[in-house]
């Protein structure tokens, strides 16, 4: 049986390191400090102390960010279907029992609101890319 490097790392990790990793996992999933302490087999004050450490906070932020990225990917995969459903509701004949006028108006309003937010995000992304490019250019001239 082959043992992976990750498995060896986990086996060799100190109990404190394993405890902090467990705590990070619980906190990243929305658990309370007490739940994290219970899962890591430490006192809640230890969790409070760990939360003061920059490395612990950085690891927690990385795990949370990774979880949000996964959620965003799942939502993005379903966005096309959701948009198609909203468009379908908007195009149903007025008076259709499956989509009363109020539902159609709400669907149309949602499409407009979402489209505006997407446009705002795209504009912001373009502006950030431009600023980053200018910063790179300024650094290359200065260096």
Walk me through this protein's architecture:
The chain has 143 residues and is mainly alpha-helical. Helix content is 83%, strand content 0%. The chain folds into two domains: 1-77, no CATH class; 92-143. Helix 2 (15-28) runs parallel beside helix 5 and helix 3 (33-40) crosses helix 4 (44-52).
- Work out the number of β strands: 0
What percentage of residues falls in helices of 4 or more residues?
A: over 70%
Low-confidence stretches: 1-12
The outline comes out as flat
Total helical elements: 6
Order of helices and strands: HHHHHH
What fraction of the residues are assigned to beta strands by DSSP? under 5%
Biggest sheet, open or closed, and with what strands and sense?
none
Radius of gyration: 24 Å
- What is the arithmetic mean of pLDDT? 83
Structural class: mainly alpha
Whole-number total of structural domains: 2
**Span of the ends, CA to CA:** 52 Å
